[in-house]
Amino acid sequence: MFVPTGLDGDAVVAAMTDAVRGSAAPVLLNHGIAAAYGRITTDLTDAPGVQVLAHGPQPDPDGFRAAPLLLTTTAAQLPPQVTEECFGPVSVVARYADTTDLFAALHKLPSSLTATVLRGHDETELPQTLTEQLRPRAGRLVYDAYPTGVAVSWAQHHGGPWPSTNTQHTSVGTTAIRRFLRPVTWQSAPADLLPAELTDDYHAIPRRVDGTLELPR
Description:
By secondary structure, this protein is an alpha/beta fold. The protein has helices at about 5-20, 30-45, 100-105, 125-135, and strands spanning about 1-5, 50-55, 70-75, 90-95, 110-115, 140-145, 205-210, 210-215.
């Protein structure tokens, strides 16, 4: 999260610090993710120019819970460790002095699933410039809100910039299965060698035969 230096930015960071200190340790998906979170956060706290602002209560080490962690650095330093994806409740605040400082830091970021722009009242010029900077780097741009969870639905978009997401599918959604499909042609195959779904008498799935759509029956 890029936050400007100055009193207003200090107030935002102070509120974030209080929120993290009051947060309970959430449950991660499995032991492997919980163990990886511990390793990654150790690497983050050891990165040059990174300081710990706050952390939540330490959880029971026998469970899959993870202590929330809030770190800070500067946009000018922005070590590469803090730009990598981490599954777990860790956030990094990078303070920037001006827009030149901010834009230089954005160019260090890898591609991402989402990017969020939080605006001030009637603020347009900087959010518009940020949109142009972020559009090539993120699959979903979020304004004055936060990314939702993912679900297999028609409106779901969960993917980074092309080619990880294109006009045919996104990594989560009703068409996401296409990412794992490979077309195969059965040219002149005898009927007894065809998969059941390709035989003339199979009608349990929608198919196109000679260009005509046949619905299940």
